Batch of 4 targets.
Target 1
Amino acid sequence: MTDRITRAERMAQPTARDAVRAVAKNHGACLRSIQLRRTNTQTGDVDQVLIPCGATLADICPPCAERAKELRAAQCREGWHLDTEPIPAAPAPDEVQAMWVEHRARAQADRDHAEAAAEDTAELAELDELDELITDLDHEIRRSGLRGNADPGRPRPRRHRSTRRRQDAPDLPKRKISPHTVGRTYTAPDGKTFRPSMFITLTCPSYGKVNDDGTPADPDSYDYQRAARDALHFAALFDRFIQNLRRVLGYDVQYFATIEPQKRLAPHVHVAIRGTVSRAELRQIIAATYHQVWWPSTDTVRFDGDRLPVWHEPSGRYLDPETGELLTGWDDALDAIGPGDDPMYVARFGAKFDAQGVLAGSKDSARCIGYLTKYLTKQLGDCHHPATDAQREHEDRLAEALRHEPCSPTCANWLRYGIQPRNPRRGLVPGACKGKAHRRDHLGYAGRRVLVSRKWSGKTLADHRGDRKAWLTEMLGLPATAPTVYRWEPVLPGDDDYMPLARRLLHSVADRLAWEQALTEARRRAGDALAEEVSATGRAA
Ligand SMILES: [Zn+2]
Ligand SMILES: [Zn+2]
């Protein structure tokens, strides 16, 4: 393989890079593969392994994004119509799980490094992403039963104030939640049994009449503040909905949900649930579901324009430049919310919803899974491209409304209202918070695009990935991965064996071609075997 690559490399002039990328894309090869050095600790053999970057956005790596989307579709399909309780199995540790541990260690090191070096808010925003990554990796490791061997790194303390208000109980019939997750079975008069599931779409309320192109009929009266706040708290609201759904139906309802923007740029959520709920019950649950945001009031703007709070190094707090007084701390501001006060905001769904029953293996089921995963390779803000001035202006006005809304307790925007954000740091500027929710491509929603309950399929994404790998291995008649002990190390620029991107790209294409060929061959063999069997049966008959 090395010879072939070297030859190919010679032929690949810099101007041919785009052509190679196009070929790679066609063959589903990762455009930004990561190079790992794999050492067999028993034999000392070293080989280079390219692993796909695993991007979920087509902007970054279209082939990986497409694979990630297919994986989500497989996950959705597998959990939707389960007729037995999923039991998550703990697989034996193997090299793949060892690799997760390796990634975890690297991510922790990156995070600690970033935290130590962080000087501005952009770098601090990256910490959130690293934290998210570490949480994901911990999940993978815990599932693989290797947590004890992994370096857990420094524990990351999270403070939860007891002052956080309890959410009021909604006005709904309440049943005890039985632990089962599988929906009811129905028996038809002819004795046939079926177990329907559901596809539900929940939307935000109206903020004003909109035209067919998603723009407001009257931009001046369109309620951009509510639109911004509902988007910011959409994930929490969805969570409340699921709690209420479980309470009303009386069992541990499982869901696979994806968040997408509507044309008016408000989020909506498509939900596949296991089991059914009547339209009447659903209407009742939606009407009774709300999320109260117990944050300090943002009614009064205290600092704006050039007059902004100033960082005071000795106290690690911000102060009012005119009076020299420290701003109210976050916890104190929360404590000051009195028993008679209203929440800063109450998020609710709109009354409009969509619900349909779906049977396992039906055409409807495939169509709905298509809806559920349709936009997963794009950021929210890239799903609808503004084509007209009116659409661009609508997007601008929403972005402007989101600019000053606090996105979280640590948001820089709290300074505008005279409150220290939680864990204040130097360099915070109200109106310039780097939190994801404020970014144009997020439209106010900073949460995960796919929300899957724990007992949906009883598997993690990594398990689903493993299933696909196992299927391929079997199809190709390859031996399964030997449980040999490997040591994995990232190969970095400057290392002797480091492959530059162009070379990795060619390797990835060569690997994909080899796979495709082997798969075609395996399919042909399977076809031949089947044909032989058929003709043998024919002869026998
Ligand atoms: Zn990739
Ligand atoms: Zn923010």
Note: Confidence is low (pLDDT under 50) at residues 145-165.
Target 2
Amino acid sequence: MNARMPLSFLALTTVVACGGPMLQGQEVRPPVSQGDRAATQASTAPARAAATITPEDMQRRIAYLASDELKGRDTPSPGLDAAADYIAKEFARLGLRPAGDDGSYIQRYALQRRALAADQVRFSIGGTAGARTLVAGKDYAAMPGVPARVSGAPVVAVRSLDPNAEALRGRIAVTYLAGAATSRDFFRALQGVRAAGEAAGVAATIVVLDPAVSEQDVARLLELNTETGPLALGELTSPPVFLVRHAAAKAVFAQAGHDLDAVRAATAPTELHGLTVELSAPVRIDRDDRAPNVVAVLPGSDPALRDEYVVFSAHMDHVGVRNMNASGDSIFNGADDNASGTSALLEVAEAFASMETPPARSLVFLAVSGEEKGLLGSRYYSDHPTVPIEKIVANINVDMIGRNAPDSIVVIGQEYSSLGPLVREVAAANPDLGLTVAPDLWPQERFFFRSDHFNFARKDIPALFFFAGVHEDYHQPSDEAEKIDADKAARVARLIFLTAYEIASRPQAPTWTEEGLREVRALTAGGR
Ligand SMILES: [Zn+2]
């Protein structure tokens, strides 16, 4: 479980962690289930397969993944690689088909920490009355980009950047952004400008700031971009953005014979003739790394449906080694978060692999990394899927299922699709599981945004997120294997198996409710 919201909701290239207060030791209080009790009895084959999921197996797997040997499975780290290796070997032992890179179980993705190379920042404008070089941190701030240097490109003014505007391709776009340069709305708008510039193929974007933005604000913006950013996916692809103080912009444009107010009024792209602009804002790479996802497929048994997939996801990473606590422990073992979900993924895979006839649809087992760094591994997988994304009919995500009230499990996302009624039906048809399916009990914590199903939901894939809630050991060195309720974790894993069996077997694929799809699209709009 991620301690903050996805990166896309945060400011600039530099992200400020906003870990809100966690609920401490709160008990899960399920409402009385109103689920459909007319559920069909599970046939004996799935019931037998479900019975292979035992508390002992869950405890053994959790104990290994959460052992001090794996040092908290930080992304990237040798401990994380050891976890990935263990999962890949288990997939191989179960006879699952590799679905990573080049016939292996591992999908590797690039990770960087980067910032602005501040010593190489440059902004100069030449016009009819000579050239002028602006002062970084006083007249302007910059966000690094590609290309690092832009020289002599035509300059085009436009009130708002249209990502589809052909007239902006290869040009330096000049636009205007209202508001104080400190507000969340400003940073969100700035992200939009940056993304629109990239989509339109600009060479660089010049943002003229509000007259109210001070020199100190500009200095702070430059400093923010100079500090090492968080781990981010891949390599930087967006063009550089220059944020210019209003007075400075007005002076240089006037010098070149252009009126800044006309820039603000340009509803369609308008070329500013007679300007020669030289810009430089290269990226500084502070860390260049790679991290693993582990992916396997169990092919379905129905020739007509086996090209459709149900994806199980669980994050195998945690937060590594940090400052020690009062008892001298510095290893954040992440037993509940998320050795519990990873172990459920393996146990569910083992249960499916034990069946003589697998379900009709194919199953994808996906252990991701980088979840604690901002859902990075699942973001990468959903953008670079190893099965056709339009053929993924559902995502079942498992994150933290080993603690709190033994008689219930929270399943987030029930209200959005036919998966909600289905999981309640399966729970009602299997009273021996002793589990009541509860809705999201903590909407104020925004858990919908804080685990890997988010990245499937943003691709319009119906998803369920199994989650037993946080507790006093959440993101602490004390989240250790001996505190896990392995009996509960095994029963939740059985419920997941039986639910997934139904999803993968029924002729009709899961469907969104009309309102559910609309709401999920609104919720994931910032992360698309
Ligand atoms: Zn977490």
Note: The two ends are 20 Å apart (CA to CA).
Target 3
Amino acid sequence: MNPKPTLYRWLLSAALVLVALHPAAAQSNKLTATLDGITFDSSYDNGSLAAISKLALNEYDATLYTDTGEKGTAEYWFRFTMSGVAGRTITIHLDHTHNPVPFLRVLDPGPGAWRRMTANEAPDNSTLTLSFDTNTTTVELAFFEPLGYTETLAAVTNLTAASPYAILTTLGQSFENRDLHLVTVNNPDYPDAGKHRVWVHTRVHAGEITSTHTMLGFLSQVLANSATGRRLREYVTFHIVPQVNVDGIHRGHTRWDAQGIDIESEWCNIRVPEAALLKGQVDFLMTQSNPISVALNLHSTRGNFTDSFFFKHLSPSVSVAFEGIQQNYIDAVDAATPLFDNLSAQTSQLNPCTFIESYFWNNWGESVMALTEEGHYYRRITDNAWTDGAHYREIGRAMARGLVTYYDLPPSSEPDPAPTLVTQPSSRILALGQPFSFSASSTSAPPVAYQWWVNGEPVTGATSATYTSLLTNVTQAGAYAVVATNSFGSVTSSLARLVLIDGSGTPIAFADDFEANSANRWTELGGFTSGGPDYSSDYSFDYDTYFSAFLGAPIPSAPNSAGATTHGLKLTVNDNDPVGALAAVSLFPKWQSYEATHALKFDMWINYPGGAGGSGASGTTENAFFGLNHSGEHVV
Ligand SMILES: [Zn+2]
């Protein structure tokens, strides 16, 4: 399916004679240096730091790498680790003008998550002041939440390997022989003929990292197990090049490729294999019966813009009608997420040789809606918080969702599935006073709602995938499960048991103190031989209100009643049958099933008819039977 890259490789070998006249600078941004016991290291994939020198103990001067190419210099990317930082406060003088609040993560112990530095940690655009506790030995600093060549490939593989609709292939090799990948997303259940075709490529400029997060969001949306994901895959085929300037990314460049060339500007006279591979694939796809109709070229800008933006190309470089075609997609993305409001709308005239958009326009005109998208490193418009990778992944998902409106896609012909649980809750054995949590999760869509249950009763407020609480009461012991529901159905998890170890060390699998009405925890079965149903139940009866003629006093607190309260379960039978006849009631706690050896313990007060000692009574008196693992299906 892919065009053979051989021709381009052959042509390139001639072109390389020319570029050899101005070879790229050596990889002087890969350093390893130890100062005062702190090892600074940028000698890894995507690492970049040109120099580090000591000003005083724990105070250093860091020099950014200047990325020099035939179109000039570019300089903002940095990424390096520092080992041996435990217990220190370290000041680094480093130019981070284009991102006032760079990123940090703890590598050891870790790795932890990337986070923006605080205002104290990045007090101005040329200083970082970082304090570490005695447990933190190694940290990593970066201009923005980074993804190197290998990390990007791992993130893409993680998404594609989990989907039956994605194929990850190699287009060919870069100048430095790194693989250039292509992800194709297609649902083969639907014929190609009627499908739209979308092209996305990312990170032509090496340091423009927001574009990688945007791409990952876009890819996750088109692969999503959701109504929108199914709809997109039914009507659209996607081709995504997850990283173009793979050499520059690996080197830790800000902008140019390994030869100092701007891959973005290679559309008239292609001298680099990366652009040749893109062009070859695009040319092939444009020969299909359903050629590319949307092309998205993802970038980042170092400018401080209010919002992410698209470069809309204007007449006279394109037609006025094409301006409207571009605006339709921009409006569709605007409507797809509150994180984009087109507040930084930018325009440009197409240049015949720069941007893939020019290549599309020059060859296929209005039939390909091609746009450059730019993220930035500053605050977002909605809450004025600083942007991060998650922000741009959501922008990317919205760029995919916007295609539903742009193409006016029909609804998916596949019904949405009911949820399935990918993890189940597991049992816990805990003492009173300990925290506990149960969790289960569903990746299903439409959005899933959760409700946790204990012993057949819904737990108030427990409506997340994880239920966390404190074990404060014996009635919390028992069987837990969660019900996950979406608009197409629901599924109940397996039961997980919370066993409480009481003060004497006895494990309690289920208990009811009847302090509150717990009728919902029990199943009742009534039986009678005439005039029924003929029983009553009261699950929080205050038996102190019940005068015992036998005792000549109210019924005292049960022997095992915590706090000497006088609440209990009251059962009566044969209340309303004028004829002497059998009547009974059986109770079964819901959701209980036990294996191995268990004991049943309870306090019981039983009244009998007639006067004291039953004198003067007629007929039989009360019986009570009790045990474990009764089938719960009939009255004893
Ligand atoms: Zn760019």
Note: Residues 205, 208, 299 surround zinc ion (CB under 6 Å).
Target 4
Amino acid sequence: MLALTAAAHTPHVALTEVADPSPLPSEAVVAVRAVSLNRGEVKRLETMEAGAVTGWDLAGEVVQAAADGSGPAQGARVVGLKFPPGAWAQRVAVSTADLAELPDAVSFEQAACLPVAGVTALLAFDVIGSVIGRRVAVTGASGGVGHFALQLARDAGAHEILAVARRTEGLAELGATEVVTELEPEGEPLDAVLDAIGGPVLGAAIQRVAPDGTVVSFASTVTEPVTYPTRALFGASPGAKVYGLLVFPESRKHGGTAGHLARLARRVADGKLHVPIDLTTSWRDAGQAIEALLDRRVKGKAVLTLD
Ligand SMILES: NC(=O)c1ccc[n+]([C@@H]2O[C@H](COP(=O)([O-])OP(=O)(O)OC[C@H]3O[C@@H](n4cnc5c(N)ncnc54)[C@H](OP(=O)(O)O)[C@@H]3O)[C@@H](O)[C@H]2O)c1
């Protein structure tokens, strides 16, 4: 079968022949119809061994149900998260703990955007708890995680939602009540911050968090170390915490991502969650899509379709 594999030269991907998957008893084999790109997997391509398959997000049809009887039946339309990575292939063995059936109203392209970006945003709100009537900030709001986070904050009843992004258009429609290009370290205290950038932006978030508030840190888009006057946290905001979220181990606490994927897919089907697809192209043009994502030309998600 064909797969998008790591390659030595820019854009560090190539379509090559690889072996078919050998599923574990708890894995279903999915014929992949669409995948979406995430900054993390794309950045890692150039350091991967040539010929290795990566990719976390996939949507497609089950061609072989799991041998242990778990998960969706053969023929089901599904969305899945593949970890360890390997979703960018024609057929992929996926743990049924990370596979959810799709409502008919959700396209493969929409579904492929949900796993890492959507589940990360949802898990962040699991960590934060209730935001009803609270002030929430989302940094990197124009990105994949950011778009989902804004909508989830709005739907969860946040009172004020501060979106931080360079490309600000369209963010108010998704729930932002204020849109800025930089998060200032001084200003109204924030009950919760989802930081999709890192570095000095995380430093500013720590200085803005309210007493007993939560900063969820999951990004290293900017790799500079974080600095802040320590009193700005324990002195100004006693009880506030910074929570490090990594989607894969975090989702294991919930028994996998299947439940979160099903919740997100239902909201898309009900028209309550907009999937921010900015770029859709064939996986044969993966290199251009990857360059666009890394050059900050993608607002939301980039999707590759498999022919
Ligand atoms: N820990 C985890 O489990 C986990 C899970 C998911 C994602 N992540 C990480 O979270 C981050 C966000 O993910 P994503 O999928 O939403 O990424 P994305 O779609 O690339 O969005 C990130 C946004 O950050 C902004 N940005 C990009 N480069 C920047 C820079 N150098 N300085 C400041 N802003 C910059 C861009 O907005 P503007 O150009 O409009 O400013 C972009 O829209 C990534 O670092 C990703 O690797 C981690």
Note: The CA atoms of residues 98 and 223 lie 30 Å apart.
